[in-house]
Design brief:
The structure holds two protein chains of two kinds.
Chain A (H helix, E strand, L loop, with lengths): L2 H25 L12 H6 L8 H9 L3 H7 L2 H22 L3 H13 L2 H20 L3
Chain B lengths: L2 H11 L5 H13 L5 H6 L5 H11 L4 H6 L2 H9 L1 H4 L1 H26 L1
Helix pairs in contact in B: 1-2, 4-8
């Protein structure tokens, strides 16, 4: 994937994420039964996916309640960091005609493919997923 | 390389590449040195049919992207419930060509 493709994708993800957050602030009731879920996995299987609950996590985090945010889904912190840094970074790269984010992305991808790093991370995601299913997010 | 070896390769592996690239691949292989034949035969390609099945079943977890080696995109899909479901749907239509492109990149690493 080229630099521009990656930047378009990341911009689309950020915009969609922020729009979805705005929608959720208007309509989410924090109950699994009443709320619309865009998650294909949950809609088909009825089980929570590894990322289910991250919207509620981000919402509580933005309200300053980080303990509750951790309970909904710890991945919310990661998404929060992503939404804070990536749009600014893309704008900076476009402004300076640099491709620093692209280079960092490629280096990180290489690093994550190493077994010593990948296996613990897969373990963490699986543990979080099991917790997610148990608490019925 | 001999024409019959090249044709054998194209017959066996044609489905792993985009059809419009097959001609270029054939020309390249014909011009290639015979010593590379052993390496080319041992290359393992990803089947586009497998990736579309994985994409339909586990696309919103990003497994399809992990499978073809796009680790970064896989993580992106995993952490966003398949991009709020939209990316997972879009990838049903993109994943086969993405797989074929990955296969071509793999072959090109030997060709050049």
């Amino acid at each position: 994937m080229g630099r521009n493709q990656l930047y378009i994708l990341l911009t689309a993800l950020s915009v969609a994420g922020i729009a979805w957050l705005g929608y959720s602030f208007a309509f989410t009731t924090f109950s699994t039964k009443n709320d619309f879920s865009p998650c294909l996995f949950k809609s088909t299987t009825g089980l929570a996916c590894p990322a289910c609950g991250s919207t509620r996590s981000l919402m509580t985090l933005l309200q300053g309640n980080w303990q509750e945010a951790f309970f909904w889904n710890p991945l919310g912190f990661l998404l929060f960091a992503f939404l804070l840094t990536v749009p600014v970074w893309i704008l900076r790269d476009l402004f300076f005609r640099s491709d620093s984010l692209f280079l960092v992305y490629n280096r990180t991808e290489k690093m994550l493919q190493k077994r010593a790093i990948a296996i613990p991370l897969i373990g963490l995601v699986m543990a979080n997923w099991i917790w997610n299913i148990v608490k019925n997010n | 390389m001999e024409a019959n070896k090249v044709d054998m390769f194209i017959l066996a592996n044609g489905k792993f590449f985009e059809s419009h690239q097959l001609h270029m691949i054939r020309e390249r292989l014909l011009a290639l040195d015979d010593s590379k034949w052993a390496v080319i035969q041992t290359l393992q390609f990803k089947d586009p049919t497998t990736s579309i099945i994985v994409s339909i079943l586990a696309g919103s977890l990003g497994i399809d992207r992990f499978m073809i080696g796009d680790t970064g995109l896989g993580i992106g899909k995993l952490l966003t419930c398949g991009g709020l479901g939209i990316w997972a749907l879009v990838d049903w239509f993109l994943i086969m060509d993405a797989t074929r492109e990955k296969n071509l990149t793999k072959l090109q690493s030997v060709l050049y």
